[in-house]
Queue: 3 jobs
Job 1
Amino acid sequence: MPAFSLARLERLRVLLVDNTPMTRELVQGVLESVGVRHFMTANDGRSALDLLPAFGPHLAFVDWEMEPMCGLDFVRAVRKLPEYDNPFLPIVMFTSHAEEPWVIKARDVGVHDYMVKPASGATILAKLASIINNPRPFMRTDNYFGPARRIGIVGAVRS
Amino acid sequence: MVMPFRRTRGYIDPPLRARLVDFAGTAFDADDLSRAEEAIAKVVTRYPTLLADEIAKLVAAWDAAPEQLTSEVVGPIFTVAHDLAGYGATFGYPLITVFGRSLSRLLTMGDLSREQMAAVVDAHIATLRVIVRDRMKGSDGPMGLQLAASLDQAITKFHLAAGSERKGRLHDEVAALQAKKK
């Protein structure tokens, strides 16, 4: 298998949702440094939802505390989208909430992964690689639709 | 027969696009990591200005708060404190993260009155202002510990007044931060 070329990441479309412009710039800067070129940014979940159909992101980094629509409600809304609008969108919750109950809450609405602020460049890249290289099956039950839940998401934050 | 998407129960294989198959095998080497850290360093240079603006926002939100602090009233103050906690350490100001997080925690303790919270919130704001004024980067040695200890007193007093024996633990948190740096 040929070695991975970062040039491939040029085609990756990333949605950054955070009410702090500097945090968006930070994540964008890190991803640009490895060749990602396509970004859309939003201040809150509501504006992000409006961007989804036209932009068609492959991946989203989403803050929790935002007004008027918080990150958790954004995830809920994405998971309710019709199939052609990609309810499977991989979402990384990127937040200052570091305590376990928050992580569990995020997992239970269907985030793929969880990253606690502050995060280094290495952490952001590790999350990106992990999301790309470990696609997860989805599951639907009577009260859940999202990536097949795993205990690991909680342990990863705890460590 | 293919089940309609909404009716399917159990495991579902996402379409190829959602599995990001086009990008499979993504890996980063040491050069990539150092470019990523350089990208962060570029954003960091603008942080002190943003920090001063954020603290001004915090003060304005707190000044505007009425006597009864419902969760709706506290929302904007919490958001600024939470944001400060979020990126302080990334931009080289871990004390902002520790003290911003402490303020966020206090603000989520339920509906309290402004009078009950005034001293402890004012103490946090004053401490954050000192960090900005003196550009206290890093966990900043004895001064960092002193600020944490003084906030601990305000936190302990606040808990006591609320009938709890909980104590401020910021001094321990900052000490642990400093020990980690050594």
Note: Residues 93 and 148 of chain B are 14 Å apart (CA to CA).
Job 2
Amino acid sequence: MKDIKFTVEWNERLTANVFMLKLAAAEPLAPIRGGQFIHLETGDKSLLLRRPFCVFMSDTNSVTVVVAITGKGTASLAQAKKGDVLNGIVPLGNGFVLDNARQNVALLGGGIGAAALLQVTETYPHNNYRSYLGFATADAVLFEKDFARATSVKVSTDDGSYGFKGFVTALFEKDLSEWKPDVILVCGTLPMMRAAAKIAQAHNIPALVSMEARMGCGVGACLVCTCETKQNGKLKNLRVCVEGPVFDANVVMC
Amino acid sequence: MITSVNIAGVAFKNPIIAASGTFGFGKEYANFYDIDLLGGICTKGITLEARQGNPAPRIAETHAGILNSVGLQNPGVEGFIQEDIPFLETLDTVVIANVAGSTEEDYIKTVQRISSTSVQMIELNISCPNVKAGGMAFGVLPSSVEKITAAVKKVCTQPLIVKLSPNVANIADNARAAQNGGADALSLINTVSGMAIDYKTRRPVLANVYGGLSGPAVKPIALKMVHTAYRAVKIPIIGIGGITTAEDVLEFMIAGARAVQIGSANLFNPLAANLLVTQLSNLMTTCKINNINECVGSLNY
């Protein structure tokens, strides 16, 4: 991990409240594993804390993040223009780690959470992937083309205005009768991740989920971004920034 | 140029100390810079038994400040000795162990355990606003400040710093009480009690409802309290509260602090404390200050 100076290359609006930022690094970057994150300045000097974003795509010279406007920090980032300078600490967190036994991988993304999953296909290019992306409405659909470059993609919308009508977890479960992945990687809202974890458990498939938390330092020192985990019946607060953001679903979804 | 300061017989190469709770046990920031360049580091609050802390969310950003309610999550004194002391022993900077507890007995046992280690100083945390039992409960009434300080001092082989809470009636009384109890130095201020509310959900932002405010928002409060305490006691004072620039450091020293602690700023920028060491030297050159000690308590008024 290193604090790196980034320059905004472009800022593209994807939906009403979601945008994509490409950030050019002032120095070569260490490899970033799928599911790792960047702790980024907001560009608003009156805001003190950085904001954590999963890395959507990266190479040795740049990081691309996808951001939903949810508060002052993200609203400030939405105004970022080409040439703006933002410092970011990267790479942070554990990311998704796949061992050799996990060749067939299902990617389950809920809304903007899907942004945490695409880079996995770069980190592990030889695995077989199927992607399931769920959104509220047709207007909110993201990343379909991006995922299509690396995997098969099925899309659901809650209201049926695009793709399968219903939750992405239902869309995924339907396919399980003909395809059983070795592992499911999930990022979305908490209820979505809980539903996915339940399906994974029912079908005896391991699941990894990527958690979100309000963060302070981002590097493991301040202990504010904890999430509750249960191991052998014992409660343990673990840091989302260091022990996470990716956790075994059995440990955080119980 | 002289930047070294001496607090209760312990020499610091410069007055910049990383504050408890924002610097872990040092390892995390060693990834970013040589932490031996700091005057000292203060550990996360250590209790007798391991603690899991408060539920999340534990942080909220407010105007020019941050609220936290970590609630003393830590590995316990034995975990600290096994996991963290070996790394801390490799450092060439002053290591201060911050100690917290729920009962007087807890404090005594924890300090006794740490007294047998190579930690150079102990900071008594009687000012944590985020735990129900203990913490700030020991730090509010001057009589209890004096009692707990005296009890811990008896078993403490290292110089003892008492960290004071700003959430009190009269900081001068509490500063004197710590001095009377045998404190070798004071550090202040801990965080200011506060809260944040989300008007849309009508819920508190912190799961713990209340938290402790730090960052630039508290700096004027901290400066005044350091100045008040400086006039009330003879023992050295370490100033804490919203320091983000070298100018802030000088202001605290002019108010009466012999050294300062950098807290929230570490969260804004992982290099903050390191940068302040350099920036302070530069500012001393600009201001023609040859010896940083000449600033201490030099307020003209």
Note: Chain B touches chain A through 34 residues (CB under 8 Å).
Job 3
Amino acid sequence: MMILAIVLLGLGVGVLVGLLGIGGGVVLVPAMVYLLGMDQHLAQGTSLLILLPPLGLGALIAYWKRGQVDLVAGILCALGMLIGGYFGSRIAIPLSSQNLKGFFGAFLMLVAILLWRKTMEDRRTASPQDGNKSDV
Amino acid sequence: MSERRLRGAGIFAAACLCGVAAGLFGVGGGVLLVPLLGLLFAFSQHRAQGTSLVALIPPTSLLAFLSYAKAGYVSWRTGLLLVPGIFIGGILGGVLAKHFEPRRMRQVFAGMMFALGAWQAVSAWWR
């Protein structure tokens, strides 16, 4: 029963990611905390595990074909995020679960504001066929 | 330093910052990288999204993941069970997105996420 619930949760998160073009982790972490009753640290570590395979490859190919990729900048970003990610995890692990949960809540609010802003930009640029398959 | 180099260094620094957030919160980091590329380096929305996808192809969360794994904060079973659903769901969502106007849905979702974040922060700190 639990296994089925987890598989269905994955399906639901996947639909949201594909539909809204938002990051999987942002949805996954709260879903695991509230729907599966996981601890904040455990949910974040598990989310990082899921984000290891190159889930955005299909989307990248689509952007690449339209010439909307800056490869050098992308590689620089990958390096920066690899290094930054290490330090972020070093900050997170010693925090109490309660504090981490609070900070995550603040982070979710920031993400919500960014997402809202983006919908405003989409209206300005108004391109009906794209703008949904996006950042993973 | 040439302007090109300077810009590269700036992008690298911004990405480091996104990486810290990614490792701290267990997320991909694209959610911050895309707006930062747009705001600080004048990337168009599409170019920012395409470029951020390059950064997410290599396992950039690897080092962060390893430190969580070392501390025992990874549930392999749950993680592996979630993957097939997310994969299939992602394809379904992509197909659905072509039939819907996703802007309104994103706004509703942003509202829900804001409320969830606020509730989570309040329940953690003001109890």
Note: Chain B has a mean pLDDT of 88.
